[in-house]
C-alpha cells in the first residue's frame, strides 16, 4: 500500500494547478517547485490530506545561484517525510535575489523556527510572520550573509598563510 | 655520593644570603616562587585541546604536581587562564569578559593552534587567534598538543612568573599593554 | 588552691593578641595590596555574559515562623532547667509557679495553633 509518486503528483496538481510545477525525480525523492506565495497552503495540504500525510518537516534550508535570473536567485528548499508510508518529497521555492521574502511555516511545524532563523542568518531570506527572526549561529553584529556566493570564506586577517601549502596558484585563487 | 647521572629533584633555591638557621632573599624571589608553584588554572576549554587538558589533569600526566591542584572556574580565584580550543567570533566577547574579571596577577596560556592563530579554521566565524582580544603570555602550538607539551607551556609560564617583579602592576609597560587591548 | 580573678588575665591577653593579629593582617593587607578597579572587572560574574535582574529572591515567611517559634519554646525549656535540677527542694510551691509559667506559654501556643502559624501549606 505504498504511496506512489504519481498519486502525489496528481493530487497536488488537481488541487493547486499552476502553483506547483516542475515535478522531477532527483535521487529517489520527488522534487517539485511551488510558488513562494502559496507555500503555506501547499504544506498544510500535504500535512493534513488523508492520502498524502506528510507529517514531518525534515529540513529547511536556502540556496543561492547568482547566475540565475534575478527573480530566481535565492531559494528555500523544504524536505518533508511521510512516516506512515516512508515517502520523502522535496519542495523548492524560488525567491527574488534582492528582496527575498516568504511566509513562515512555524504555524505548521515548530521545528522550522530555528531552521528559518539559520536560513535568515546565512542567506538573508526574510520569513514573514516569524516570531523571532534574528541571527542564530553567527555573531549578532554581523552585517553580511555568509552563505551567499559573493561572500568570501576566509577571514582575511591571516598573515601567516603561505599559498604554496594550500595549493593556491594564480590561476585558481 | 651524588654522581651526575642522578636526577635532581630539589628545586634550586633563589639567590640569597644564608647563615646559621636562616636564609635571606629578596621579596620578589619569594613571592615569585610562591606564585609560580601554585598557579590555579581556569580551564577555558572549547574544543579538542580541552580533551588533551583533561588528560593532563588526570593521574598519568598530573598537572597537580606543578601546583595546579584546584581548577577554578571562577575568574576571581584563578591565576592563569588556559584557553584551549577554537574561539568563535561569537565567543570572543565572553572570553574577554572572563579575562577582565580575573583578579590580578593573571596570566594567559593559549593552547592549541586554534587559540594561537585560528588554526586550520581560516573562516568568517572563527577568531584568528585570541591575542586579538586579550594579551597572551605563553603560546602552546599543536593540534592538539600532547599533554607533555601543555605541561611544558605551564613550566615556561612558571619561569615567567618566578621572575616577575612584584611592582609590575604599576609599571607603565603593563598599563600600556592593557591599553593596547582597550582593557581599562 | 585559691584562684582569683587576676590569674585569668594572661588568657585574656592571649585571646586579644590572637584575634588582634588576625584582624590586623586582614585589614592591613587590604590597605597594602595593589588594587585595580574597572567597570567590567567589578561586574557580577555570569560566565562572561551580562547578568540580568537581581540575584535576591524573596523567600517564604513560613521558614522564619518555624524558626522563631522554635526559639521561643526552646527558651521556655531553658527556663525549666534550674527547676529540673532543684525541683525536690522547691517542692509543691515551685511546681505551682512553674505551672503558671507554662500555662502562660501554652496560651501563646494555643494562639499559634488557632492562627495556623505552623501550617506548612
Structural commentary:
The complex is a heterotrimer of chains A (173), B (184) and C (121). Chain A is an alpha/beta fold and 173 residues long. Chain A is built from 3 helices and 7 strands; from the N terminus they run αββαββββαβ. Chain B has 6 helices and 6 strands, in the order ββαβαβαβαβαα. Chain B has a 4-stranded parallel beta sheet. A two-stranded antiparallel sheet of chain B has the order 1-2. The longest helix of chain B is centred in the C-terminal third of the chain and has 16 residues, at 147-162. With 121 residues, chain C is mainly α. Chain C has one domain (5-35, 58-114): NADH:ubiquinone/plastoquinone oxidoreductase, chain 3 (Methane Monooxygenase Hydroxylase, Chain G, domain 1, Up-down Bundle). The model of chain C has no long low-confidence stretch (mean pLDDT 89). Chains in contact: A-B, B-C. The interface between A and B is medium-sized, with 14 and 13 residues.
User: What radius of gyration of chain B results from the CA coordinates?
Assistant: 18 Å
CATH architecture of chain C: Up-down Bundle
What distance lies between the first and last C-alpha atoms of chain B, to the nearest angstrom? 56 Å
Look at the structure and name the CATH superfamily of chain C.
NADH:ubiquinone/plastoquinone oxidoreductase, chain 3
Residue fraction in strands of chain B: 5-15%
What form of chain B results from the Cα inertia axes?
A: globular
Helix run count of chain C: 2
Biggest interface between chains: B-C, 17 and 11 residues
How many strands appear in the DSSP assignment of chain C? 0
Order of helices and strands of chain C: HH
Oligomeric assembly: heterotrimer
* Total individual domains of chain C: 1
Envelope shape of chain C? flat
Order of helices and strands of chain B: EEHEHEHEHEHH
Secondary structure: helix percent of chain C: 55-70%
Major β-sheet profile of chain B: 4 strands, parallel
Mean pLDDT of chain C: 89
* Helical/strand content category of chain B: alpha/beta
Largest beta sheet: strand ordering of chain B: 3-4-5-6
Amino acid at each position: 500500500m505504498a504511496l506512489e509518486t504519481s498519486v502525489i503528483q496528481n493530487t497536488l496538481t488537481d488541487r493547486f494547478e499552476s502553483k506547483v510545477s516542475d515535478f522531477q525525480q532527483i535521487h529517489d525523492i520527488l522534487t517539485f517547485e511551488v510558488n513562494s506565495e502559496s507555500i503555506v497552503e501547499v504544506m498544510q495540504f500535504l500535512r493534513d490530506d488523508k492520502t498524502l500525510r506528510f507529517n514531518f518537516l525534515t529540513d529547511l534550508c536556502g540556496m543561492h545561484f547568482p547566475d540565475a535570473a534575478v527573480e530566481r536567485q535565492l531559494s528555500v528548499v523544504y524536505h518533508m517525510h511521510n512516516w506512515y508510508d516512508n515517502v520523502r518529497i522535496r519542495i523548492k521555492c524560488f525567491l527574488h535575489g534582492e528582496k527575498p521574502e516568504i511566509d513562515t511555516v512555524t504555524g505548521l511545524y515548530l521545528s522550522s523556527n530555528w531552521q528559518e532563523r539559520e536560513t535568515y542568518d546565512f542567506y538573508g531570506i526574510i520569513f514573514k510572520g516569524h516570531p523571532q527572526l534574528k541571527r542564530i549561529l553567527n555573531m549578532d553584529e554581523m552585517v553580511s550573509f555568509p552563505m551567499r556566493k559573493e561572500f568570501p570564506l576566509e577571514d582575511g586577517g591571516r598573515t601567516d598563510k603561505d599559498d604554496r601549502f594550500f595549493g593556491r596558484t594564480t590561476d585558481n585563487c | 655520593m651524588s654522581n651526575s647521572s642522578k636526577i635532581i629533584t630539589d628545586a634550586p633555591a633563589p639567590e640569597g644570603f644564608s647563615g646559621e638557621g636562616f636564609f635571606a632573599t629578596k621579596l620578589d624571589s619569594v613571592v615569585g616562587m610562591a606564585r609560580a608553584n601554585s598557579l590555579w588554572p581556569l580551564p577555558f576549554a572549547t574544543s579538542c585541546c580541552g580533551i588533551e587538558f583533561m588528560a593532563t589533569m588526570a593521574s598519568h600526566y598530573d598537572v597537580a604536581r606543578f601546583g595546579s591542584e584546584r581548577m577554578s572556574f571562577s575568574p576571581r580565584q584563578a591565576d592563569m587562564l588556559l584557553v584551549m580550543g577554537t574561539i568563535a567570533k561569537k565567543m570572543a566577547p565572553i572570553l574577554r569578559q572572563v579575562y577582565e574579571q580575573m583578579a590580578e596577577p593573571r596570566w594567559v596560556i593559549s593552547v592549541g593552534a586554534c587559540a594561537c592563530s585560528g588554526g586550520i579554521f581560516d573562516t568568517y566565524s572563527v577568531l584568528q587567534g585570541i591575542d586579538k582580544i586579550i594579551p597572551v603570555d605563553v603560546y602552546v602550538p599543536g593540534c592538539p598538543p600532547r599533554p607533555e607539551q601543555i605541561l611544558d607551556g605551564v613550566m615556561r609560564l612558571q619561569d615567567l612568573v618566578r621572575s616577575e617583579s612584584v611592582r609590575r602592576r604599576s609599571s607603565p609597560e603593563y598599563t600600556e599593554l592593557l591599553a593596547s587591548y582597550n582593557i581599562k | 588552691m585559691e584562684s582569683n580573678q587576676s590569674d585569668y588575665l594572661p588568657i585574656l591577653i592571649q585571646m586579644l593578641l590572637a584575634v588582634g593579629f588576625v584582624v590586623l593582617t586582614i585589614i592591613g593587607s587590604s590597605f597594602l595590596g595593589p588594587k585595580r578597579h574597572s567597570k567590567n572587572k567589578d561586574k557580577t560574574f555570569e560566565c562572561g555574559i551580562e547578568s540580568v535582574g537581581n540575584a535576591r529572591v524573596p523567600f517564604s515567611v513560613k521558614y522564619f515562623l518555624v524558626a522563631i517559634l522554635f526559639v521561643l519554646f526552646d527558651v521556655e525549656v531553658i527556663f525549666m532547667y534550674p527547676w529540673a535540677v532543684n525541683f525536690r527542694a522547691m517542692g509543691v510551691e515551685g511546681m505551682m509557679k512553674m505551672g503558671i509559667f507554662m500555662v502562660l506559654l501554652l496560651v501563646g501556643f494555643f494562639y499559634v495553633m488557632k492562627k495556623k502559624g505552623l501550617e506548612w501549606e
